[in-house]
What we know:
- By secondary structure, this protein is α/β, with parallel strands linked by helices.
- The chain folds into two domains: 2-43 and 116-261, Ribosomal protein L4/L1 (Ribosomal Protein L4, Chain: A), CATH 3.40.1370; 47-114, no CATH class.
- The chain contains eight helices and ten strands.
- It has helices spanning 28-41, 121-134, 138-143, 164-173, 177-184, 215-220, 236-239, 253-261; strands spanning 2-6, 12-17, 80-86, 89-94, 152-154, 186-188, 200-202, 207-210, 227-230, 249-252.
- A six-stranded mixed sheet has the order 2-1-5-10-8-9. Strands 3-4 form a two-stranded antiparallel sheet.
- The longest helix is centred in the first third of the chain and has 14 residues, at 28-41.
- It starts with a strand and ends in a 15-residue tail after the last helix.
Amino acid sequence: MKADILDLNGQKVGSVDLPIHFDEPIRLDLIKKASLAVQNNSRQPYGAFPEAGKRPSVRISKRRRDYKRSYGLGISRSPRKVIWHRGSQFGWVGAFAPNTVGGRRAHPPKAGKDYTQKLNIGERRKAIRSAIAASINKDLLEEKNYTSKAPIILIEEFEKISKTKELTQILNKLGLEKELANTLKRKIKAGAARLRGRKYRIKKGPLIVVSSKCSVIKAAENIPGFDVCVVNNLNAELLAPGANPGRLIIWSNKSIEKLSREKLFLNQSRKIKIKE
C-alpha cells in the first residue's frame, strides 16, 4: 500500500510504501485490553490516612464488673470516647467504629494497592499494530467525523517547526480546521472534579508522530486535544484513546521510515543458542 507525502502547504511531493503494520487485521478486543492496561499502569496511588478515625483513645468494656461498664444501660456496645464522668456515670460519644460520627471508614481506598496490569509483549505489539491499521480505516474515521483523508504523511521539515502559530497554520492548510475548532470546545464537569484541577473535559484531536525528540513536540503541546509522540513510544492508549480505535494520525516521513526500517512492534523470532 502506498501513501502520498505532503509538503507543509498540503501539496503532494512524493509517495512512500506503508509498512506492514497498516495491513494488520483490526482486533478490537486486543486494543481494549492493551489500552486498559496502559490506563491502569498510569494510575496515581491514592488512599486515606491509615490512622484516620482511629486516633481518639476509645475503650468500652464488655465485662460486667469493669469500672466503665456498659451492660444494663440500654446502649449499644460500640467503642466510645469518654467526654465526662461522675462516679459510675459517663458521658461518652461513639468513636472509632465505622457507624459513628467521626469514626473510621469501613473500607477506605488503600494507597498501597497495586493497580498495574501485566500484558504479554506479543499481545501488546499486536494491539499497537491493530490500532495503527485502524487509523486508516474509513468507517472508523467517519464515525469520529474526521474530515481529512488518512494517513497524513509530511516531509522532514515538519519536525523542525518550533512555534505553535506556525504549526496551527500548517494544520489549517492540511484541512484540519474542524478538528482544531472541536478541541477548543470545553465542557465543565460535574462534581468534585472541579475542585481537583480537572474542571474541563476536552475532546481528543489527531495524534502527531515524529521520529525522535525535536522542536515540533514543544509546539504541539500547546494545542489542546492534540498529542505528540516519538514513534518508539507509541502505545494502544495513544493510538486509540479510551479503547476507541480510529484516531487520525499525522506522521512525519522519517517516522514512517523508522517504523519500517527498525521493524518496530513486530514479533521477531528469537535465536536460541544450544549449548554443546
